[in-house]
Design brief:
single chain; alpha+beta; three-stranded antiparallel sheet; two-stranded antiparallel sheet; 5 strands; Transcription factor zinc-finger domain-containing protein
Length: 108
Amino acid sequence: MPCYRCGARQTDPARGASPWKRGVRADRQVLVCPGCQAVHDWTAELDRCADCGSTVLVCRLGEVECRDCGHVREADSPAGDVTGPGAPGLSEEVAEALERVLKKGRVP
């Protein structure tokens, strides 16, 4: 899953916990890269818990759960990508990668 602001793809950390943060935006789980965390007030763009106002939410199986107070509600939005402007979606990246691999394997 890419950073929802800039489209950067997450990589495995060298050691320890990942510096990427996650949240919920428009009822969809999103990731925020370390660069966007430093530059933007990214928490202002996240959904908040209706009970306690926290942005520490997770979205799974059509529900949004607050990790601070435990409040659970049904997700309202239809499934879809929540990425920044111009960020390629996963399906486009997979199609491009397959095209590159299949072109290399062709015999004239």
